[in-house]
Design goal:
By secondary structure, the chain is an alpha/beta fold. It contains 18 helices and 18 strands. The chain folds into 3 domains: 11-139, Rossmann fold; 148-318, Rossmann fold, CATH 3.40.50.300; 414-459, Arc Repressor Mutant, subunit A, CATH 1.10.10.
Length: 459
Amino acid sequence: MSSHWTDSKPVVLVVDDERDHADGMVEALGKLPVEALAVYTGEHAIEVLRNQRIDVVVTDLKLEGPADGLEVLREAKQNGSPTEVILITAYATIDNCKEALRQGAFDYLVKPLDIDQMRTLVEQAARKARTAHARQAQAEPEPESFFFDGIKGASPAMQGIFEVIRRVAPTNISVLIEGPSGSGKELLARAIHVNSLRRDKPYKPVNCAGLTETLLESELFGHVKGAFTGANTDRKGLFEIADKGTLFLDEIGDMPLTMQAKLLRVIEDGIVTPVGSNKPTVVDVRIISATNHNLTKLIERNTFRQDLYFRIRGVNLVVPPLRERPEDIPILAQHFLQEAVEETGSKITGITEAALSILTGYEWPGNIRQLKNAIRTMVVMCDRPKIDLPDLPPEISPRRQLPGASASPASLAGVSLNDLEKKAIADTLAKTQGNREKAAKILGIGERTLYRKIREYNL
């Protein structure tokens, strides 16, 4: 068999309630150009099949629990799926083998397993499945873009990220997301969680850069009454609250070294002890981390632990800045436009080609967050059917005339940032008829910040 069936390796799901057998089969399949993963119950296998494209299933016929091998087979072959299933049985009776083949099994193997025979059958099944997948793809072409739980993108970079998420979401592997501020790292983390087998359990985000070391330790691990000044009651930490779910550690690169050591211990042992307590609690939490730093450089500077890095970097997702994927900007702009129109009740129907061209050519240093806020502001401020050049924000369109700006459209040189900010706040308040809550949301700032700015500028 060729070592390259397609651009990506065929995925083989091994199902056996005896972990040693399942892991042994995965190891044996490592000699083939496939990606093999193991689960240990029929229920888990069915969940994976519902959430991830699998080319071949190798499953024991008899499994502990309500779902046996035939249930897994039925799920795999549902709705004409091209997934091929190989069943393993200790007793090759005529009845169960006939039933398996009647329901669409590719073939069956009898215990004790002949490893070479298993590899040969998996190769044949994978080839057949991939051919069927290819035919399906030709009959039903992929859409130009793919919406994935709040993030949209047609660029090769984003499509690659979506594919990785599809593969890793149903597993328990740790994920590290790297990318600049505003690039949508938390949206990706949420996408992984909602597509995982933990989706019905808690998802808890925490910003590691936004808390002091003492508060971060309490936030993650909890504390007992009297553990420190202000600890007036017992409080569970996020590790306990997120038990059986997902914990998102945002800006982990800013975590103090001493906290990194404590975090590493909890991740390695699966045991958390609240601050001031000596009673440990076992926890089962999937870790997704994000940073806008280069962690390998932080390791070189001795500000980030290498052992923690290897623990959290099970799979690494790198989100490029928006300027490196301009083909995503029109898709995102239209998506944010729809959101803003629904939110505000605006009658705007779209964005002109001229305005969209300017939006696409801009570098967006604030990435997706900046684009979203810009679109929302334009929807509120625009009085025409479509957003056009005069509606573009001043940082994008220097032709916009603002107080203190030169009459020449060539530049905004000489206009202070305070003037620009004051104008944006005043116009937004006027458009929202003084509704400060709505104005703060459109401007992308907190209400308290808006109140402070209103006093500062005497608005």
